[in-house]
Amino acid sequence: MNDPETSLRTALHERVGDQHPDYAKLSAGAIRGGTRIRRRRRVFVTAGAAAAVGAIATGGLGLSQLLSTTAVDEAPLAAASAPTASPSASAGALVAGQTVNLGSGLTGLVVTNAEAGTMEITIQSASMITGPGTGFTMIVSGPEQAVQDYWAAGFPIGQDYPGLRFATEGLPRGLVESVPVEVPDGWTCEWSLIDDHASCTSRDGGVAALNIRPAADYETWSTSPDKGGPGSGAYVTDLHGDIFISVQSGRGTTDAELEKLATSLAWVD
Amino acid sequence: MSTSTAKAPTEEFADFVHATAGALYRTALLLTGDHHLAEDLTQTTYARVFASWRKVSRADNPAAYARRVLLNGFISHRRLRRNAETPTQTLPDAPGSDADPSARIDLLAALQRLSPTDRAVLVARYWEDRSVSQTAADLGLTETAVRTRSKRALERLRPLVADIFPERTMR
Question: Do A31 and B44 lie within an 8 Å CB cutoff?
Fold first, then answer.
């Protein structure tokens, strides 16, 4: 009965059976990451479509060639020959300053792209098709969940206004708004604040990861040997307001170097 | 209390994550051997699932889809990293039957001594209880390759596992 396969099966379950992820963080991070993937896909598709239609309009491609085209994101943009799409019959012309009722308690404030550049907003979607939305940005606001759903659905009103950019305000953008710590000399970090994460590289090529975590997780992370507690091989900073940072090594970083990095982090504020 | 049963897509997705993330995260932990990397792998997997959520949510088994995304994500990520690694003539801490029995190592660390694909095969077969044919389909291998890799990986792991579970494997 105690064959190696059964032993391994049992050992695997005993080893990780009681491990649980941070469900809320996973879900929120996945929605943010997934939405970014969708936006990239949409930009690629609209860019590819503009290029393809433009090429047809100038007689550069036959239909059979178009059907055999792969990788739309590699298609060159034909901006000069991009089509001018028409809005649907129900869609009127956009005017800067107007507010559009988007349903579900959402409104869309229309501003020019130039105005948008002066506002504290986040551009979430930009279409490369030239159309009646070109030159305008719609700032979507309302209940947070409704904004998230409208965002996840790909800003449907954009189908009536090709070229329209979408922006949001007040959406969660990570636990902090700016880089929270300075790293010691010899380390360089690339921060992705929206993911609460930084990838760091030392002068000699070692790698480490910093993760910003909410204070609610501190007790678990500072005590569990499976997270950042003693013997885990990872380190956690002290609590700083509502957050702390876990520091974990990657390829080429010794435990001593990691500990030095973790203890040398200096909070910015 | 709302009487509506229809859920918003993000709410539906959050429910899906809550129902499946435990198992997926534990699989990621066995594959990566590290909580941070497991979190990253799991989150990347769910981000990909969310990007196609309208289609995935209508599939027969969205959890199986997510598991396959995770396995393929792990293998392809390792493949990219391997291309950037520098070969060396000697392998560190090569496991063998003459390993010091006092050098007890954790099962997660033992798994890390296997190649990523061998590790994925073991995890699929013995953690997820996938059949040989299912594992082959999940990982894009032939059934013969799954059997061969599974046998070889188990043989490499046994001395290390024996250190941890002598009563089970050292009879």
Answer: no
